[in-house]
Specification:
single chain; 5-stranded antiparallel sheet; 18 helices
């Protein structure tokens, strides 16, 4: 996310407030990219069915593997993917039909000055945790401290510019920032969840003090639309709708959270999961395998119409599958080596022979959006890049980036020849068919995987690497070990889905900044350490308007691409879903739903057509 747009809309009753000496505005909603769509007295979002019936259940498939925690705010453990989203309420909540736009939830309003040096939230007096205890400003002060001290390193980076937080009274909360002009900061604070101070300072079901930094399967106390009802560690969890949910009748929630029960089932093996779907053991399947989509769905439930197959477009930017190179390993330190590895990845052959023609090549870290760099740098981009010309690859200024294109054959001869030239220029030499450094040490790469389906992609790459004298191996581990190894930087190469928002900002520090490179659990998985990247991130964060943000994103994109920090792989313009036909859905498809939701708002906006039967 990035700067709050100049079009922030003030609540009508507060217009006079903007004329006082602080020139502050009191806002019921905020947008990063333009004016608010909904007035202060709106009754519901346009994309919901306000008459949607409550009841019934939906069964979802969890990610491959298992879970051992309901705490998704920390590094330790493998959290259940829906816990944070369904259990906790936040100060403000997102709108799904405007990019980077939010309206009051726990807070009924926010007040900000013209220089964005602080923000004050006024909490709703009827906001409650599930045990009936009121949500107060003290809980939010506690939450920020807890996330910074014991949470995922992401939070330290994301909330880096919060200098202080103060509970003015029980329902008034002020955050003061350590810089001015960063108009994204009030928006970032608006995403803060409320964690109950009295719960986390208390004792667990065994009489022991609760420790937020440790994974736990104790169902947490929240304030959102659902609570944990039943679960079996690693296998399933059922969330039940909170009947007396305090925010149920707010305009932001009308028509949402309609299912009485949301169940999430976990399968360690995707082949088993596919058969379980057709055995009607869960309702919605996100199909990640192009081969399955092409060959595994000619079955009676599909032919009869009981199971629907749909493709839903991605919201820009499109998520992009790439291979992360661990720059902490000396063998990946030279950008010529990283470029050579990109040349050896034979995407054109994979697309025809493995991907059933499904995918396209990744072109940008902001693929498929106006934030992606194209052509040569514009004047606005050059203004940002010129001060660093002597520290950047010349291609940043002279050449439009494009990934290497093979001839579509299995040999990939021309690209491999160019790759070998680059490796030799970087000091590697072929001796008796093996690529070695000056000391005679062989070039070896271990690919870390957590699913067998990726072996079909990596094995052809390994065969091409062997032609260069590089020995490649695959290490297949379970989901928990995979997460731990990635978080602790114990890998050579792993596959990663790069995702960005339409308003990138402070989170880029956690993804690319030097300060995050050696922080366990940060999203700077590759260990990028580049002062130019650091400075461009800061310029992006304080971009004063949308056009400045786009220029800064383009500049950052070019520097990341031309340093070959990852091997860009493949992406798709849509997502493939199969689902049993037993649900109602709004007539208006959402455009900007959070990444945690399923197709067009499942399970948040849909409802059961079998409820009450």
């Amino acid at each position: 996310m990035v700067a709050l747009a100049a079009g922030l809309v003030a609540a009508p009753h507060a217009q006079a407030q903007a004329q006082d000496e602080t020139a502050s505005r009191i806002l019921y909603g905020a947008s990063l990219v333009g004016d608010l769509k909904y007035p202060a007295n709106f009754t519901h979002f346009d994309y919901v069915n306000p008459e949607a019936p409550k009841g019934g259940r939906i069964r979802l498939q969890g990610p491959a593997g298992s879970f051992d925690s309901f705490n998704g705010f920390i590094v330790q453990g493998t959290p259940e993917v829906w816990a944070n989203y369904l259990i906790y309420e936040t100060l403000f909540t997102d709108s799904y039909d405007q990019p980077s736009t939010m309206y009051g939830a726990i807070a009924e309003s926010m007040e900000i000055p013209e220089d964005n040096s602080w923000v004050i939230f006024r909490l709703r007096e009827d906001a409650r945790f599930h045990d009936g205890v009121p949500i107060t400003a003290a809980d939010l002060v506690f939450t920020l401290g807890l996330l910074r001290e014991k949470g995922d390193p992401f939070y330290s980076s994301y909330y880096h510019n919060i200098a202080s937080v103060e509970a003015i009274d029980a329902h008034t909360l002020k955050f003061t920032f350590d810089e001015v002009g960063n108009r994204e900061l009030p928006f970032i604070v608006g995403q803060l969840p409320a964690l109950p101070k009295h719960y986390w300072e208390g004792k667990d079901e065994n009489g022991e003090p609760r420790d937020f930094s440790r994974s736990s399967l104790e169902p947490p106390l929240g304030s959102g639309p659902y609570r944990v009802a039943r679960f079996e560690a690693g296998r399933y969890v059922e969330y039940e709708r909170v009947e007396d949910y305090w925010a149920r009748d707010l305009p932001i929630n009308v028509g949402r959270f309609n299912f009485d029960v949301i169940r999430v089932d976990y399968y360690r093996d995707d082949a088993v999961a596919l058969e379980a779907f057709f055995a009607d053991e869960y309702d919605v399947r996100l199909e990640l395998s192009a081969r399955n989509w092409a060959t595994a769905y000619d079955r009676p439930p599909v032919r009869s119409g009981s199971v629907l197959r749909e493709r839903l477009p991605y919201v820009e930017p499109i998520t992009a599958q790439s291979f992360v190179l661990n720059l902490r390993r000396e063998k990946f330190a030279d950008p010529r080596v990283r470029q050579a590895l990109g040349l050896s990845f034979n995407f054109e052959w994979l697309k025809t022979n493995i991907f059933y023609g499904e995918y396209e090549r990744v072109l940008s870290y902001f693929h498929g959006s106006e934030l992606a760099a194209t052509g040569l740098p514009s004047a606005a981009e050059l203004e940002l890049l010129e001060p660093y010309r002597d520290r950047l690859p010349a291609e940043v200024f002279t050449t439009a980036y494009a990934p290497p294109v093979g001839d579509g054959t299995e040999t990939n001869r021309n690209n491999l020849f160019r790759a070998l030239q680059l490796l030799q220029a970087a000091g590697w030499q072929l001796r008796d068919g093996a690529l070695v450094d000056a000391a005679g040490n062989p070039f070896e790469i271990e690919f870390l995987l957590d699913t067998e389906s990726f072996e079909r992609v990596v094995q052809p790459w390994i065969r091409d690497l062997e032609k260069l004298g590089i020995r490649g191996t695959i290490r297949l581990v379970d989901a928990a070990q995979y997460v731990q190894r990635v978080q602790n930087h114990d890998f050579d190469v792993f596959s990663y889905v790069v995702g960005n928002s339409l308003s990138p900002g402070n989170e880029q520090r956690d993804m690319w900044a030097s300060a995050a490179a050696d922080e366990p659990g940060s999203r700077n998985y590759g260990g990028v350490r580049n002062p130019v990247v650091d400075e461009l991130i800061e310029k992006l964060i304080v971009a004063p308007d949308r056009q400045s943000l786009i220029a800064a994103s383009h500049a950052l994109d070019r520097v990341l691409l031309w340093n070959y920090y990852m091997v860009p792989a493949w992406t798709s313009n849509d997502r493939r879903y199969a689902l049993w036909d037993r649900f109602g859905r709004p007539e208006v498809d959402i455009e900007f739903g959070p990444s945690g939701t399923y197709m067009s708002g499942i399970p948040v906006l849909w409802w059961s057509t079998e409820a009450g039967q």
